Amino acid sequence: xxxxxxxxxxxxxxxxxxxxxxxxxxxxxxxxxxxxxxxxxxxxxxxxxxxxxxxxxxxxxxxxxxxxxxxxxxxxxxxxxxxxxxxxxxxxxxxxxxxxxxxxxxxxxxxxxxxxxxxxxxxxxxxxxxxxxxxxxxxxxxxxxxxxxxxxxxxxxxxxxxxxxxxxxxxxxxxxxxxxxxxxxxxxxxxxxxxxxxxxxxxxxxxxxxxxxxxxxxxxxxxxxxxxxxxxxxxxxxxxxxxxxxxxxxxxxxxxxxxxxxxxxxxxxxxxxxxxxxxxxxxxxxxxxxxxxxxxxxxxxxxxxxxxxxxxxxxxxxxxxxxxxxxxxxxxxxxxxxxxxxxxxxxxxxxxxxxxxxxxxxxxxxxx
Length: 368
Ligand SMILES: [Zn+2]
Hints:
The chain is mainly alpha-helical. The protein is 76% helix and 5% strand.
């Protein structure tokens, strides 16, 4: 009988093998099936061993444990290699995602005149790519990504040239009717650049208008510019540029709104002051009055406390401890009513505490 149960494909042996979850189960299998297998196939399982790939126990007809340990070592090495490769793959995938993101954003910024920044980004990405290659050797996407970066590097250069061109030169290129692929590419770059240049002019004038405080006007210009100039056309190469323009417009809107808010606040404050002056009282005078009022209240309370202290002393002298205690209690209550806990408070508090102590002693004396 050839056993069919528990069979898995073992990557270490590259064929199907039986797999047991414990050494005991594998040994048991040998014990009960050895003879039958021997008579069927001429080769019987001799011993069990742990397979690191399958994470369980196989049986083998190879008697030598020395050979077995060699095989174990080999398996361990294969597993380590696979692990390194898997970790490497993860790092490479992460790295390529970062590179693609950075280049993607940078491709828009190149039209906004941030050429040096864009070149720096390409350099950073190249550095990252080469680090990955040093570490993991050339990987499948290496040449593709490198190619993309080199192409982008050239694009930065072309845009630098186009932005230095005179209007006349640009006009000539844009006027070419049946452009070659290269010329068409140049035309596209000129158009993209002009879109941004036009936006920059408008942006500057909007900023000026905001500075002048004509916020409503600024708001209208921003809205109409977005409506007229930032329409998305399906599959147009300029959509990403328009998106960035819209993002920058929204920053202007925010700035404008902040100015409007600030002006409203100033206006509110001005009106409040006006109101106060109408009532014949400046803000400072009101504050002074508030402070004076608080002190007046406290002054009255302090007088009351002093009276209570005097009365408690008299009561203490004539042995009327009950009355003395009442006075002390009221004095303590009044002390807490004081709004300002200043030196006066501390002195009065000390007096009251002293009296309380003496009354306490008297009680003690009576009890003793
Ligand atoms: Zn195995």
